[in-house]
Target: O-fucosyltransferase family protein
Amino acid sequence: MVKVSSSTTSSSSSSSPDEESDLQNLLEESDSQIDQFRISDEAAEQRPTFDVESLRSRLRRSFKLNLTKKQSIFIFLPIVIILIYLSTDFSNYFSVKVPNSVFRSNTLTGRVHESDLQALYLLRKQESDLFSIWNHTVSNLSTIDDVKSAVFRQISLNRQIQNALLSPHKTGNVDIGGSSDGYFAGGSCRKVDQKLNGRKTIQWKPRPDKFLFAICLSGQMSNHLICLEKHMFFAALLKRVLVIPSHRFDYHYSRIIDIDRINTCLGRTVVVSFEEFWKKDKNRKKHHHVHINRFICYFSKPEPCYVDKEHITKLKALGITVGGKLDTPWEEDIARPSNKTAEEVEANFRSDDDVIAIGDVFYANVEREWVMQPGGPVAHKCRTLIEPNRLILLTAQRFIQTFLGKNYIALHFRRHGFLKFCNAKNPSCFFPIPQAASCITRLIEKVEAPVLYLSTDAAESETGLLQSLLILNGKTVPLVKRPARDSAEKWDALLYRHGLEGDSQVEAMLDKTICALSSVFIGASGSTFTEDILRLRKDWGTASECDEYLCANEQPNFIADHE
Model:
């Protein structure tokens, strides 16, 4: 049976002459100019005091500062809190039980030698951080959040020092514990309160014989999903059933989202697949084709609707005919979209025709705050209307349980084709790998996440370099990517059982889902893939106060010239 001590024992009472000699050699090896000193048992029981008035007087004389008492309190209070924390023995207040074996003091072994060197390094880092906090506080009165963040970092660092000093003496799974874990679980990042009770919504109650044909042509799948969500808002405003495009004209939406679930969320039929629409359209029964009575373009420039001859040919191949010319109700340029109201949309797109088409609305800027709120602008009983289908969601959860665990950071590291795209912007959003690694490491330290999930199109040469630079406290932080298919692994069994294996759009949505469920997310500025992940995190309630774009508020430390 292991006996547990009810109170801590002073380390000075069990020191031997040999141990003091070893400790002197240890400090000489660390190349520091630290003077050796001895502390008597009586001095060890004393507690340091901090006299604000005395320090204020000394500072006034040294720096010629004329501080009022109130100003002094604002400046020195954070420092007092930190000094009290560092100088007080909390073992009398918190019952932390530590095995007697921790305090066995034989000669310094190699493990003690290594842990003391590490602790010495961490103490110096803490000293440097405290000076930084002091200088920042004196020169610029910090906000409460800044002070809390600074104090948290010191608590975290102090905990590392304790673990380093105790590591040679640990047996089994013994840990020092600590009361702070309960207050800072998951690091200093909290979930964002989305305040769903204040949502502004519109009821979507379509007329059963009036349809809106969604046209989404710009960009990749993420653009099309954002476009589809805006089409839902238009359909609600115009009281129409939304027709999801065929996979022969657009993406295969039914493989990545659950269309029937959208109807369940609203308690009525508001969306239909193209195949369902084909079966019920009364014109098809007469003329053996589907007829779009009116084709309305939201944008007139650079070309109406993005619809060219190729897309018209695809529509005709589906058995769709378009009546009249492409109609544009206003002058609207994709490069400079103007703010539009719901009333303007209703007035300009209202029609008595049975079937109308509107496209492309990806760049449309209609009631932005309304559309971007958590859950979207339409009233429903689900968290969000457009989300991964059940098979993809379950596969993502199984992957997380297998490889990541509850606390992980997700990174969308967009690289392919991004260099030219970002350098055309001011400031650029394409960062050198070492600078990106530095930004990521700072966030990892704050979140205290043991692993990082990587969603990327980067080459192995780039991800390999990134992995080699992600080092925290002397340890490499693993980068995890989805592995290639392996029959021995069962986390992705649902996908290949249902014929979804190898579908690039399914894999992209799987990546989005894993990122959306992470503790903290780092996105790529300017990427709609990132924006769709942020939408899911906002709607699912997984958004964190620490979510950010890679190297936010920084500029690349090197930018190539233009061609």
Q: What stands out?
A: Residues 390-549 form a domain with the Rossmann fold fold (CATH 3.40.50.11350). The two ends are 74 Å apart (CA to CA). The longest strand covers residues 211-215.
